[in-house]
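Appendix C: a fully annotated inverse folding record. The material below is reproduced so that readers can follow the format used throughout the book. The structure is listed first as tokens, followed by the designed sequence.
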């Protein structure tokens, strides 16, 4: 694999993860538990969509085959997406969504802080801008985990159930393949193995404060690095791609 191919696949992976997560979170728009929280999560969603646009725009530039970020977002099949599996999981109730978001926010802040030091100026620039946004995202999701975990018996039960449903998808966040190996040698990619103990420490401390139990012997799900996904991605793409596929040349 040459450097250009690796950089394209790396940018696609990051862009897809942000895109699918934002699409999932957008399902809460108008359905939040109260108005202020509805607006807060909607703004977080817009931040993540913005990051997805920047990353896919860069991927299209690297590929240099005439495709735009919209083409990459809306005109690929499910096996051509490389988003982390955790992002495509159903929202469930608000506690589950927040638990998933806390896992991702914690990872993203560590990841984009490291990516800001990348020798690739475009990725470093996107990362630098994202750090400010993710810092707020993490503070928001972490505070809600604490609120649910130390609230009523029902809120704690829902948080624990949400944790049980998404925990198995967290290991994949740190999976590396040939793409990472090629870019690490060039000082472009982030060493995910170095982030894992930092992430685990923060998450373990959060879960302890929220009285959430981490089960042992959980089978950790993987597959997205090879374009293998859960059945949920197909439904997401069917909804988000229906109009662009019906009118691919439409201008708005």
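Designed amino acids, in order:
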């Amino acid at each position: 694999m040459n450097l250009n191919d690796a950089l394209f696949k790396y940018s696609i992976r990051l862009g897809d993860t942000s895109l699918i997560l934002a699409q999932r979170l957008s399902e809460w728009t108008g359905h939040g538990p109260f108005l202020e929280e509805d607006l807060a999560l909607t703004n977080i969603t817009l931040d993540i969509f913005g990051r997805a646009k920047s990353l896919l725009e860069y991927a299209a530039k690297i590929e240099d085959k005439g495709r735009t970020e919209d083409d990459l977002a809306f005109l690929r099949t499910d096996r051509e997406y490389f988003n982390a599996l955790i992002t495509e999981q159903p929202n469930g109730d608000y506690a589950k969504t927040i638990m998933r978001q806390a896992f991702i926010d914690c990872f993203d802040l560590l990841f984009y802080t490291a990516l800001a030091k990348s020798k690739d100026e475009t990725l470093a620039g996107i990362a630098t801008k994202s750090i400010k946004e993710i810092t707020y995202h993490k503070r928001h999701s972490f505070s809600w985990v604490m609120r649910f975990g130390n609230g009523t018996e029902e809120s704690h039960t829902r948080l624990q159930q949400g944790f049980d449903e998404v925990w198995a998808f967290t290991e994949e966040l740190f999976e590396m393949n040939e793409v990472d190996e090629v870019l690490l040698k060039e000082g472009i990619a982030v060493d995910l193995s170095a982030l894992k103990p930092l992430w685990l420490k923060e998450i373990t401390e959060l879960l302890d404060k929220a009285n959430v139990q981490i089960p042992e012997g959980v089978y950790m799900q993987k597959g997205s690095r090879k374009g293998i996904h859960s059945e949920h991605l197909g439904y997401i793409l069917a909804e988000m791609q229906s109009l662009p596929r019906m009118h691919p040349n439409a201008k708005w």
